[in-house]
Amino acid sequence: MTPEMHLDELILRYPSLSAIRNDIERAFNILKVCYESGGKLLIAGNGGSSADAEHIVGELMKGFVKRREVPEDMADKLIAADSRRGEELAKKLQGALPAIALSGHPSLSTAYLNDVDGDLIFAQQTYGYGRKGDVLLGISTSGNSKNVMYSISVAKTLGMKCIGLTGKDGGQLKKEADAAIVVPENETYKIQELHLPIYHALCLMLEEHFF
């Protein structure tokens, strides 16, 4: 399959997303350029969106539907570097697209919350991890999550591209993201139900392109 075919299948299964097809494709192209340039993805979200952030990392950092075997030259280097473990590593390691869920660092987050300002936790992580050419994906069903918006501000200052995954009217996230995917729902749980197939499709499209 091609990345476009995965997007076609998404729209076929979820016809209500046809109106935002171009926005999904725009987000894919931003991520494709990022990874082609050696960049990484940072993901910020609260509550269920935090779980979505971790879910996305799980699909990008290992094989999703493909095996993603390491290149032959890397396999040879692993075997040459470690005669005991190299062969097993070469056989079992999988190609990865670097992604970090910013909600996955409780010690850092609680320290920053206690010592500085809880609203700026994602912003601090973006400042520490982010580099020009990286991408920040902000997930917020309202589009107005304060901590997500602070991280967007830092990302843009660093020269990162920003993608928003949201609902309702898109909120502030729609206005400030380079690509905003605003699903056509208003209830939080219904918005989240559409977020999952969208980010699954994006992960499938990226895997198809790179592996």
Kindly describe this structure.
The protein has 2 domains: about 5-60 and about 95-210, Rossmann fold (3-Layer(aba) Sandwich); about 65-95, no CATH class. Strands 2-1-3-4-5 form a 5-stranded parallel beta sheet, sandwiched between helices. The chain is an alpha/beta fold and about 210 residues long. It is built from 10 helices and 5 strands; from the N terminus they run H-H-E-H-H-H-E-H-H-E-H-E-H-E-H.
Radius of gyration equals 18 Å
Question: Which percent band covers the strand fraction?
Answer: 5-15%
Q: Number of helical segments?
A: 10
Q: In CATH terms, what is the fold-level topology of the largest domain?
A: Rossmann fold
Could you tell me how far the N terminus lies from the C terminus, measured between alpha carbons in angstroms?
A: 12 Å
Summarize the structure.
By secondary structure, the protein is an alpha/beta fold.
Write the layout of secondary structure elements.
Layout: H1 3-13, H2 21-36, E1 41-45, H3 48-60, H4 72-81, H5 86-92, E2 99-101, H6 106-115, H7 121-129, E3 135-139, H8 146-158, E4 161-166, H9 171-176, E5 179-182, H10 188-210
Parallel strand pairs: 1-2, 1-3, 3-4, 4-5
Helix pairs in contact: 1-10, 2-10, 3-10, 4-5, 7-8
